[in-house]
Amino acid sequence: MTRPGDDKIFARASAIIPRGVAHVRLDGPVVTRDFAFLVLPRFTLLAFSSAIEPLRIANQLTQAPLYRYRLVSMDGAPVESSAGVRIEVDQGLEPLSRETTAIVCSGTDASQAADRRVLAWLRDHARKGGGLGAICTGAYTLARAGLLGDDAPAVHWENRPAYRELFDVEPLQQIYVIGRKHFSCAGGEAGVDLMLALITRDHGPKLADAVAEMCLHSRRREASATQKKVYPSPMLARNPAVARVIAAMQANIATPLDRDALAEVFGHSPRHLERIFRAVVQETPKSHYLGLRLEQARNLLSDTTLSILEVAIATGFNSRSSFSKAYKHRFGQSPAKTR
């Protein structure tokens, strides 16, 4: 963070402070925090605006320069979003101040949106101690730059199988995560929740709640809130047998069905089930089933007082050790650390 009048970070930028009717009295000193949103080709407008608008609203409500932000592109030229809308930016890949947090905003071209120049720019910023963030599929770029390590980011449910395949890390099912060195959110309107969490850290829940009200955001969701497991109706309508298998998995978490039993529900051979399920869901039946069980386990750990062994048994594991191993492999932390 920087205080007004400090070094000329963002020399060409100033905080946006529109006037409005609502007002929130700020308790404490005015401290300006700087963000640089790197917008990559075909970034998603919804995720981007969900992240940037709460910052503008916080400034407006307090009539103070709490947040200062600028837009960056790979070459300083306008960038086209996934919706075909082009936006102007403030700069290209010039170096950022150490006090600035660089946020990568990506979208439909997740794995190849950034070139080598972008990866080098991010690595240089990280070496200087600059903060990092990712919106929607921006986590792909941070992972390609080697800046996430073994940390699991929050990635949109649609992109989780591909991320797992590319980086051999199970992305989080939760809507956002804030770590020591970086943060990420799954896209969509989760950017609002992420920024509300940062505003809460910076200026307290009173301002964050007021920003949420201005966004017509009914409540501030915690990072632990999980994305809904969505199976589009058209997909399931075209593949009713796959829908039956998924329903059978969801109904048999404590006593998992074996491969042959799932094939019987499917109505064809296990090999045929494997092929069709992978084509439709982009995941093997075994991996998908395990994911459902572990998501249920995480919910039980977060929302109940059941022991770890009881949670293991409730989600179909024969021992605490086998459960803990599978849980840590998928989420990057032990069951005990989730509590």
Proportion of strand residues? 5-15%
- Kindly report the name of the CATH homologous superfamily of the largest domain: Class I glutamine amidotransferase (GATase) domain
The chain-level structural class is: alpha/beta
Order of helices and strands: EHEEEEHEHHEEHHHHHHHHHH
Overall strand count: 8
Query: What is the CATH first-level class name of the largest domain?
Result: Alpha Beta
Residue runs with pLDDT of under 50 for 5 or more positions: 1-12
Give the CATH topology of the largest domain. Answer: Rossmann fold
Shape label: globular
Q: Biggest sheet: strands, sense, closure?
A: 6 strands, mixed
Backbone CA Rg: 22 Å
Q: Helix count?
A: 14
State the helicity in percent bands. Answer: 40-55%
CATH architecture of the largest domain: 3-Layer(aba) Sandwich
Describe this structure in words.
Helix content is 44%, strand content 10%. The protein is an alpha/beta fold and 339 residues long. The protein has two domains: 33-214, 3-Layer(aba) Sandwich (Rossmann fold), CATH 3.40.50; 233-338, Homeodomain-like (Arc Repressor Mutant, subunit A). Helix 2 links the parallel strand 5 and strand 6 (131-135). Helix 1 packs parallel to helix 5. The longest helix has 19 residues, at 285-303. It is globular, with a radius of gyration of 22 Å. 39% of the residues are buried.
